[in-house]
Amino acid sequence: MDKFTRRRSLCAMALAAVALTAQPALADGETVKIGYAVSLTGPNATGAGITTIPNYKLWVKDVNDAGGLEMPDGSKRMIEVIEYDDRSSNQDLVRAIERLASQDKVDLILPPWSTGANLAIAPLMDRFGYPQLAVTAVTDKAPEFAGRWKRSFWMLGGGHDYAKGLVEVLTAAREAGKINDKVAVVSVADGFGIDLINGARPAFEEAGFDLVYDKSYPLGTSDFAAMMSEAQNSEADSFVAFSYPPDSFGMTKTAISMGYNPAVFYVGVGGAFPIYPGITEGKSDGVMSIGGVDVNGPGIKDYFAHHAEVTGNPPDSWASAITYASLQMLEQAVKRVGLDHAALAEELSTGSFDTLIGTVKLEDNQLRDLWWVGQWQDGVFKGVNPSDKPGASAPTIPKPEW
Amino acid sequence: MIMTTLILGLVLGGTYALLALGLTLQYGIARIMNLAYGELTLAAAFVLVALFSGLGLSPLAAIVLIAPAGYGVGWLLYTVMMRPLVRRSGASGRLEVDSILATFGLLFVVQGVLLVIFGANLTSISYLDRGVSVLGVSVALNRLIAFGICVVVGGGLALAMTRTRWGLTMRAVALTPGSAPLVGIDVNRVARQGFALGTALAATGGASIAMYQTFSATDGVIFTMKALIIVIMGGVGNVTGALIAGLALGLVETFVATAIDPGLTLAATFAIFLVVLLWRPQGLFGRG
After folding, report:
1. How many CB atoms lie within 10 A of CB B2?
2. Overall domain count for chain A
3. How far is B176 from chain A (nearest CA, A)?
4. Per-residue pLDDT tens for A342-354?
5. Together in a domain, A232 and A244
6. Which terminus, N or C, of chain A has the lesser number of Cβ atoms within 10 Å?
7. What Cα–Cα distance (Å) separates residue B189 from each residue in B8, B29, B172, B232?
8. Would you state the pLDDT for residue A14?
9. Across the interface, do A221 and B112 touch by the CB < 8 Å criterion?
10. Are residues A109 and A39 in the same domain?
């Protein structure tokens, strides 16, 4: 009778499981449920794993360590996270968002990583009325989207902005006599690369640059030796790549190994990643890329140190700080108006917020006060364009040799 | 100009061929269509990075350790996971479908384990990242080493397959697994050897890729696809065929990238693949 049968032990295990899952339910009234679906697996896992997920975890930890999310009445509620893996598939992502909104009934939903994912969930977020702080979405159509989905916020600019910023930097260098008017440009034949090259071609032309080598390459290309040797032979002083992280790294390594030393060496996404200097064996100084930070900005230094300490890795120097800043905005907006979605969206749209990237006030639901071009200087990725933005560093051209 | 294309193409092709050798052995001899091939390659790449950055072991020394370890892993995989499938399928030809399903599952298991252990970050090491002039063309030394490994391993294997008794038994099992036991060949043992050797080659390929390419835990499928194309082009189980198909693919890609447009490299790859499939479905060097 008292034998420990398999059935009985299964019963006990089931009970234990019920008890375990019931635990958080007790504290239900006091927590704020925040849900998100991000790519923990699949091709997007890399980007989400560098920029998005660490900042979500860091922020939740920071808020909970400080006693919880503060409500307008001054009470504090702990954050309870519901996390789903979208497996880098937009179908799974949309299902997960539906589930978060209708089954889990979370108070807030944090956005996924990448432009495509944010666009995929925008109509749904709008239908359920959740504010969407789309940070890692680069799109020229942000004004249109912000008009169509009133509670969506677009915080990373568009392809044209980055292309224009780069052309400004190169024009200034040419006028100073540091580079010639020839440019070699390669771009990945995928959303981001196409957006940027389409913005860059007319901008280069208008500024009087000659695109002597202008080619695109397919997604997933891993060998750049042929392309780089063509660019090297093109007499261009400037090499520009609108590339994805693996390509950016591959091109950099190829350029180093073949001794290709253009006066301007610009790579796309990945150039601002913390592992970039390691890729170049510490010879990253002078390389330009997208994004940048104001190293003397109020919160940046602490943020970098704190991020590295808690998550084990330093943040990237493009969208990481903005991701964290968007969460600070959310935190402050909740403190001012509570968790009502309409009021929250209104506050995010009109209020101004103290964040680690300075005081942020959105224009037409978009963050426009951004760094378009950055450059590695003394091992730090500093913002160089817009050159009139406070904290801008002067670009080093020509780049020191590898 | 032509020299540049030729040398860069050969070096690229060599790395492709090295990647495909293991798969052609696994599929040709053990009859296991291993969809987790790329993941096993990646696992070796991660191990190399861990050995290099954790213990400071030189990648070349690490490869010497990783290859036998790969053999061990392959041996174990075959004994534990594939052998029951082989036994169950008997002579019915179900093995191919079963092995695809089983290794498809294995793909996600290995990928998940890699994600948990090494995270989703892009991984890259810098080792011998300097240019070497080959006939006036600057080639990265680490790629040249990978090419060297491919020539030595691939050439050695091709010789062993055609010139030794061991190779003869391997080819016998690859060609007619049904009749091989009639002449006293232990098909199970040979298949296990083939699979383990294939895994060892996958590990060698992965470890040499880690020297020059940036990769992340989710890139395995790309390697599997590339290897699969080369294997099918070269003829299943044909080591020499895989070597030549790999080199040809590298040459074509480089030629298209320099002479026509880098945007067409993928299209060119699949165009040749299509032509080979239509014209010689058994592969360039396969027996029809």
Report:
1. 9
2. 2
3. 38
4. 999 999 999 999 9
5. yes
6. N
7. 40, 11, 13, 25
8. 52
9. no
10. yes
Per the domain annotation, does A305 fall within a domain? yes
Same domain, A247 and A357: no
The verdict on B8 touching A (C-beta cutoff 8 Å) is: yes
Residues spanned by the domain of A282: 162-295+373-385
Tell me, yes or no, whether A38 and A150 share the same domain.
Answer: yes
- Please tell me the predicted confidence (pLDDT) of residue A237: 93
Chain-chain contact of B126 with A278 (C-beta, under 8 angstroms): yes
Model pTM? Answer: 0.79
Residue A95, pLDDT score: 94
Q: What tokens does A178 get?
A: 């540091």
Touching A: B residues 245-284, CB under 8 Å: 253-254, 257-258, 261-263, 265-267
Residues of chain A below pLDDT 70: 1-29
Burial of B88 (0-12, 13-18, 19+ CB in 10 A): exposed
SS3 A366: strand
Could you give the strand order of the β-sheet that contains A210-217, starting from the edge strand earlier in sequence? A210-217, A182-188, A238-242, A264-266, A288-290, A373-377, A380-385
Measured over the CA atoms of residue A96, residue A99, residue A101 and residue A104, the dihedral's sign is negative
pLDDT digits (tens, 9 = 90+) for A58-69: 999 999 999 999
pLDDT digits (tens, 9 = 90+) for A315-335: 999 999 999 999 999 999 999
Residue A323 is assigned to a structural domain of this protein: yes
Domains of chain B by residue range = 2-230
How far from chain centre, in Å, is Cα B154? 10
Question: What pLDDT digit, counting tens, does each position of B253-288 carry?
Answer: 888 888 888 888 888 888 888 888 898 888 887 664
- A7 within some domain: no
Helix H segments across A129-188?
142-148, 159-175
- For residues A205 and A303, membership in a common domain is answered with no
Tell me A338's DSSP state.
T
User: A366 in the Ramachandran plot: left (φ > 0), alpha (ψ -120 to 50) or beta?
Assistant: beta
Do A120 and A168 sit in the same domain of this protein? no
Determine the pLDDT at residue A19. 44
Token pair 């907006």 is found at: A333
User: Cβ contact (<8 Å) for A279 and B214?
Assistant: yes
**Which string of b and e fits B248-268 if b means at least 16 CB within 10 Å?**
bbbbbbbbbbbeeebbbbbeb
Q: Which of A217, A246, A253 sits opposite B262 (nearest CB)?
A: A217
| Cβ–Cβ < 8 Å for B194, B170 | yes
Residue A382 makes CB contacts below 8 A (sequence gap 6+) with A292, A293, A294, A295, A374, A375, A376, A393
Name residues of chain B where pLDDT drops below 50. 288
Give the residue from A60, A221, A109 showing the smallest Cα distance to B214.
A221
